[in-house]
Amino acid sequence: MTSTPDTVRRITYGTAPDQVADLRLPTGVQGLAPVAIVVHGGFWRAHRTLEMVAPLAEDLTARGWATWNLEYGRVGGRGGWPTTLTDVAAGVDALAEVAAEEPLDLDRVVAIGHSAGGHLALWTAARPHLPDGAPGARPTVVPAAVVSLAGVADLRAAADDSLGEGAAVEFLGGTPDEVGDRYDVASPAEHLPLGVPQLLAHGDADQHVPLRHARAHRDAARAAGDDVTLLEFSGADHFPVIEPDSAVWQDIVAQFPEV
After folding, report:
1. Is residue 156 part of a domain?
2. How high is the mean pLDDT of the chain?
3. d(Cα 8, Cα 23) in Å, to the nearest integer?
4. Is 184 inside a domain boundary?
5. Is residue 3 domain-resident?
6. CATH number of the domain within which 161 lies
7. What region, left, alpha or beta, does residue 208 occupy, with left being phi > 0 and alpha being psi -120 to 50 degrees?
8. Helix axes 247-254, 54-62, angle to 10 degrees
């Protein structure tokens, strides 16, 4: 594991160029800092990078969080099934090594993701439920809570609705009928209850991931016994949920789960 000295430390968790995460540490925090794993979206495709959510990570660090802005292999590059999942799992678990050198409280970890990153954040909480041998099984670090920002929770529903012009099918290499076992592993909806509090934030004008997807996850997760809160924002599209200067983000961060 290597890093470059700066306010933002870019740390590698593997040998591929996109197996990196940006670590930001808060100032003025006594003892160990809570950790926010930040996962960008982009429908699992390579055109989006961790820079998309860097302002959000900066805002959280200013609020006293250590942030771990995670990059991973994406469709169009190294990613897709199963690499995207194994990268995210490895990147999350790498926090255990980082915490050996930095003041991080791994009992107070929140996974925060936007869009497809919301899927990946929810999936990190599902990893303890995965069967041995599945991508991401036997986690070292598990979040105590998840914040899904305009997130995708049910990959079968995402495939059925052709979100992102077939992004879920592209990500998993086939439809639910063709590669159902992959959906069983990768979709958080298949692993309810996740067993951790979940905060969902979604705009009712979102055309990328319609609000009904968040409502369906809230209902299914609550029925399974999970503690889930859904914040709905009138007139908001897909992006105010990750804009630190927006009133939407201020409302979201004020209601983060306690960890």
Report:
1. yes
2. 96
3. 6
4. yes
5. no
6. 3.40.50.1820
7. alpha
8. 50
Please check whether residue 1 lies inside any domain of the structure: no
Number of domains in the chain: 1
Query: If we measure between CA atoms, which residue out of 258, 64, 40 comes closest to residue 145?
Result: 258
Domain that holds residue 201: 9-254
Q: 29: pLDDT confidence band, cut at 50, 70 and 90?
A: confident
The DSSP-derived string for the chain is --B--SSSEEEESSSSTT-EEEEE--SS--SSEEEEEEE--STTBTT--GGGGHHHHHHHHHTT-EEEEE----BTTT-STTHHHHHHHHHHHTHHHHTTTS-EEEEEEEEEEETHHHHHHHHHHHGGGSPTTSTT-S-S---SEEEEES----HHHHHHTTTTTTHHHHHHTS-TTTSHHHHHHH-GGGG---SS-EEEEEETT-SSS-HHHHHHHHHHHHHHT--EEEEEETT--SSGGG-TTSHHHHHHHHTPPP-
Least confident piece of the model among 5-14, 57-66, 80-89, 115-124: 5-14
Q: How far apart are CA 212 and CA 27, in angstroms?
A: 39
